[in-house]
Design brief:
The complex is a heterodimer. By secondary structure, chain A is α+β, with helices and mostly antiparallel strands. Helices cover 42% and strands 26% of the residues of chain A. In chain B, 45% of the residues are buried. The chains are: A alpha+beta, B alpha/beta. The interface between A and B is medium-sized, with 32 and 27 residues.
Chain lengths: 484, 127
């Protein structure tokens, strides 16, 4: 070796050795000698690894075998006992005939670099664990609202969103949302918060509180946005239940005060009738008491129906029989109010699948509403409620028509709204429950009304329950002409 | 019934309530008239002013609030005392807090009506 090259060899800031086919070190540089001592007669594996036999995987052996350069990462120990990570690179040294005589091995100390890498990997693992385990949905989105990363909670509830648009994964939309907090953050680089309703894989709607944060690009711009959505469905449901409970209590106490007033009136008539020896007044008072007790009973039944979600008890019902039963129930109430209850039942209307108790409640509520409309109308000389039944191909049709006070536009529009009542003694539960029952049966209730003329309810219930046969609009389309 | 008997107009959409109030008042020597909604009440008052109005709040057509405003904003009618009779106390509260340029009603009775309280209040207001 020329003395100049020898000088370079010695000065190289790494461990340089030249090894023969037995891995015996035949030459080494200064840095090697400093950290590992004399090399003469020693083997690579003895010096570097303190082993008595050659390593199973050895880049020097591979270079001898194939004449190529090889590299590997190794752990070695110096004379002082320091553990070092080194990047080993080998290269063959050939004689004039081209035969490999020795292999030069260069080991560069990368301990610091390896330690940094380990720290980085540990830190990345920790942050990824946190990212995955946070109990909310997190996505990282690029400026085109593509999801480029998502945590486990998101993937479990909304599927593997990677590559999909945020609005596709969360809302099953084909267009971006009109108000998008991610877009706002992309625009102004500031965090934003909004409440949204999203749809999970199982089709359930979830209320989420969305908070966005910009991901800076290091040059004052934004490369993407982190979107964090906390599921607040349970909180919202609880709030809704509490609000509904408050409304129910308010509405019930209002209706109850009206009915108690009716009872107080009846009791006054009975008491004063006895005092005055006026039998007619006693009878009138007692009828008032009976009437108001019946209305309280019906209110309690509405409240109980509202309070629990009933699973329908499906059974085949005879449509004419249901109509007759319900009219039979209401007959004495109508008589007491001096309202004529007329029934016009198609005896061949046949059967339909329904929950008997629910359908009876539906019809009783509508007839009570009609009787009340007659009771409140003191201008009608011949108050009457007509109950009709028709059997059609796919559905049965009940009609309840009265010639009572009728409803103005606002009352018609809000008639089926929970807790809406135009009456001083109403709870706003009756028609809401009727409508809910009709919907649970895959049916509808339509309403026609005119103030001072009267009201007609048209109830259409499919013959087959909706789980077996989803009703569509054509099933419920009017097949007969408008009813007189 | 003495000639100078005072007339009370009972306004309520519920026939049971009307029957109750008119019977109580008649038993105590008052003459009664009835209206079953706000529009009818206004028409009757304009035709022949009663000495007192017993007024329900929640009614179809015109509510008791509209009747009260109409009465108290009319120079000829505003001296007629009004007793509000209602089951909804918070609706009454809202009415009281929202009234503009109208004085408070002369009396307020919540449902169910205590008939003795009604008689005492009417007697006092018409004394």
């Amino acid at each position: 070796m020329d003395s100049q090259y020898r000088h370079y060899f010695e000065a190289m800031p790494c461990y340089l050795t030249v090894q023969d086919r037995e891995f015996r070190i035949v030459d080494a540089n200064q840095r090697f000698r400093k950290d590992f001592g004399d090399f003469e007669g020693r083997y690579c594996y003895q010096v570097y690894k303190k082993r008595s036999e050659r390593c199973e995987v050895c880049p020097v052996a591979r270079t001898f075998r194939d004449g190529e350069r090889h590299e590997s990462e190794e752990q070695i120990r110096t004379l002082d006992g320091d553990e070092l990570s080194v990047m080993v690179q080998t290269t063959p040294i050939r004689d004039e005939a081209g035969k490999i005589t020795t292999v030069m091995e260069m080991s560069t100390d990368i301990t610091h670099h390896t330690n940094m890498e380990k720290l980085l990997r540990r830190s990345q693992r920790r942050y990824h664990t946190l990212f995955d385990e946070v109990p909310c949905y997190i996505t990282i989105q690029d400026p085109d609202l593509n999801i480029v990363d998502a945590n486990r909670a998101f993937q479990e509830n909304f599927g593997n969103g990677l590559g999909r648009k945020c609005y596709q994964a969360y809302k099953h939309r084909s267009e971006p949302c009109a108000l998008c907090p991610v877009q706002e953050t992309l625009d102004d680089g500031q965090p934003h918060t909004r409440e949204e309703v999203v749809t999970s894989l199982d089709g359930k709607h979830r209320n989420v509180l969305v908070t966005t944060a910009p991901i800076p690009d290091g040059e004052g711009g934004t490369t993407g946005v982190m979107e964090m959505s906390a599921d607040i469905t349970d909180v919202r449901e609880l709030e809704d239940r509490l609000t509904q409970l408050g409304l129910l209590i308010g509405s019930v106490s209002h209706g109850l005060k009206g009915l108690l007033n009716g009872l107080a009136g009846g009791m006054y008539l009975v008491d004063s009738g006895f005092t005055k020896g006026n039998e007619e007044r006693v009878k009138k008072g007692w009828a008032t008491v009976n009437r108001n007790v019946a209305r309280i009973r019906s209110m309690v039944s509405d409240i109980l129906y509202y309070a629990k979600d009933r699973v329908p008890n499906w059974e085949p019902l005879s449509a004419p029989l249901v109509a007759e039963e319900v009219c039979g129930l209401m007959e004495s109430r109508a008589k007491d109010l001096q309202v004529q209850l007329i029934t016009s039942v198609d005896q061949s209307a046949g059967e339909f699948e329904a929950d008997a108790q629910a359908v009876r409640s539906l019809l009783v509520n509508l007839i009570e509403n009609s009787l009340d409309a007659c009771r409140l109308d003191d201008k009608q000389a011949t108050p009457q409620v007509v109950v009709r039944l028709q059997g059609l191909a796919d559905h049965i049709r009940y009609e309840i028509e009265d010639n009572g006070i009728g409803m103005d536009q606002e009352t018609q529009e809000r008639a089926f709204t929970l807790f809406f009542s135009s009456k001083g003694t109403g709870t706003g539960l009756g028609l809401f429950i009727s409508d809910r029952i009709a919907q649970a049966h895959g049916g509808t209730i339509e309403l026609e009304s005119q103030p001072g003329v009267g009201t007609k309810f048209v109830v259409k219930l499919p013959r087959v329950r909706p789980t077996q046969h989803e009703p569509d609009s054509s099933d419920l389309t009017e097949k007969d002409g408008p009813h007189a | 019934m003495p000639d100078d008997a005072k007339t009370v107009l009972v306004v309520d959409d519920d026939p049971d309530a009307r029957e109750f109030l008119t019977t109580v008042l008649q038993d105590h020597g008052f003459v009664t008239a009835t209206a079953n909604d706000g529009a009818e009440a206004i028409a009757m008052i304009e035709q022949a002013a009663p000495d007192l109005v017993a007024l329900d709040i929640t009614m179809p057509e015109k509510s008791g609030v509209a009747v009260y405003r109409r009465l108290k904003q009319d120079d000829h009618l505003k001296s007629i005392p009004v007793i509000i009779i209602t089951g909804i106390s918070d609706e009454f509260e809202k009415f009281i807090s929202s009234r503009r340029q109208v004085p408070p009603p002369e009396g307020y009775i919540s449902k169910p009506v205590d008939h003795q309280k009604l008689v005492d209040m009417v007697t006092e207001l018409l004394a």
